[in-house]
Amino acid sequence: MSKSPRLKVHVDQDKCQGHARCKSLAPELFELDEFGNAHEIGDGTVPEGLEEKAWLAQSNCPEIAIDVTEE
Amino acid sequence: MSDPARVIDDSAPARPDHPPVADWVHDFDHTDPRWTENPFPIWDELRAACPVVHTKRFQGCYLPTTYAAVREIAHDTEHFSSRRVVVRDERPEVTRNAAPPITSDPPEHKPAKQLLLPPFTPDAMKKLEPRVRAICNELIDEFITEGSCDAAARYTKHIPVRTIAHMLGIPEKDGDLFVEWIHMILELSIKNESMLAQAVQEMTAYFVGQVEARKQRPTDDLISTLMNARDKNGQPLEDSHVIGSLRLLLIAGIDTTWSAIGSSLWHLAKTPADRERLVAEPALIPTAVEELLRAYSPVTMAREVMKETVISGCLVKPGNMVLLSFPAANRDPAMFPDADKVVIDRKENRHAAFGLGIHRCVGSNLARMEMTVAIEEWLKRIPDFRLDPAGQVTWSEGTVRGPRQLPMLFAKAG
User: How many CA atoms lie within 13 A of A40 on its CB side?
Assistant: First the structure.
């Protein structure tokens, strides 16, 4: 049985406007700076079991600032 | 000694005329009573006709009703300026630092906004949450034994007023003053320009007094934060900037959130299935808040067209305003399946209730927190309630939409 691909999230800093939906939906994956703008925690690797949260964060960002890529 | 009752002179005739709209596609009017009562079918009609419509009223104004057109305009600060953000019959002169950063374009916009962001992060809101919960319960204590109330007058109105007053470090009892100024600036002054000048003058004088008091005795509230702010050259902000930003926080922080909380309770009062679900699953409330923000977005902004351009295939000419309708965008079926239904557990919800692009609402985390707490506390204490059939729900007119009278019935609590 093959392992499912690892996901990675990334926030485009030029597009992020601090709506903070990602932080609210996936606090394990995103953190906010002092201005309330988001970035991925660490290198954005999504721990096993949190894949749905990654997709939820992406689909709720009003600025379409979150990329979810498969390794 | 108490102040004499404030008397607003709105006897001046509305000018120019606002005849009832006969043709929404070519002559829309967001102050028409039918729009005020129920704007959603009007937007559906307009969206079917053209992504961007125009009226000669208000000295010329466009209205984009699709999510795509609204998004395009919100992201285009080159062609669309924020120097004017309210659509009025007259065009009052543009003043510097009217209300930074909402009236700022790049490059002034970013530094002005950055000053206001840290006090409004989600972490800052966590600290404020207990006070908001207490405010909600203090308000409920006052009417819960009566079995009925106007939830707008007794609950929703006071939550944002007291919260923003608390953040600004101004007396919560001055709340009635604030509400009156906002009524003048956002509603009455659309048709009566002198109201705008009067309210702005009074508000300015009030905040000048607050600033002076803090020069003598500094505090650690939001007013002092602005007074202590330094620009990139290490210089303090101009007085007009501090006062303009304070006016903005007060205006932006009250009518808007009041409307959103009110619309949410109105929906729950008339939709038992959703109400019962949230009572049974309070963890769903944050998701419900997003859907209620989408379906009943309170805020419509505006822009002034500075240069000719094309939006969604429609030519847009300078000298016109644009009624930047985030609420209409949020009802666009091209963007949201079942756009006209409240889907209380909607999973994908890229709504634009707090705007899009650089002018994203600074207070969005505060608004969400207030809405969530206001709904949580109401449902905890009054899980069963309905609209009073003997009463009438009335809606605010113009730029911010929410219930201004919300008569409710519920079981009398012991």
Answer: 21
Cα separation, B365 vs B119, in Å, equals: 10
Residue-wise over B205-240: b if at least 16 C-beta within 10 A, else e? ebbeebbeebeeeeeebbbbbbbebeeeeeeebeee
Domain ranges of chain A: 7-70
Domains of chain B and any CATH numbers: 24-410 (1.10.630.10)
DSSP B28-54: --TTSHHHHH--HHHHHHHHHH-SEEE
Q: What is the complex's ipTM, to 2 decimals?
A: 0.95
A60: nearest CB among B121, B350, B352: B350
Find out whether B132 and B163 touch, Cβ atoms under 8 Å.
Answer: yes
**B184-196: b (≥16 Cβ within 10 Å) or e:** bbbbbbbbbbebb
- Cβ within 8 Å, pair B356-A24: no
Among residues B195, B184, B191, B193, the alpha carbon closest in space to that of B14 is found at: B191
Instruction: Select from B365, B369, B371 the residue whose CB has the most chain A CBs within 10 Å, as the one to mutate to test that interface.
Output: B365
Main-chain phi, psi angles of B142, to 5 degrees: -70, -25
Q: For the whole prediction, is pTM greater than 0.90?
A: yes
Give pLDDT tens digits for B376-392: 999 999 999 999 999 99
Please list, in sequence order, all residues whose beta carbon lies within 8 angstroms of the beta carbon of residue B104, skipping any fewer than 6 positions away. Answer: B82, B112, B113
**Amino acid residing at B323:** L
**B117 in reach of chain A (CB within 8 A):** yes
Fold entry, domain A7-70: Alpha-Beta Plaits (3.30.70)
Terminal C-alpha separation, chain A: 17
Q: Are strands B61-64 and B403-405 parallel, antiparallel or unpaired?
A: unpaired
Distance, CA of B394 to CA of B155 (rounded, Å):
16
Count of other CB atoms within 10 angstroms of residue B410: 21
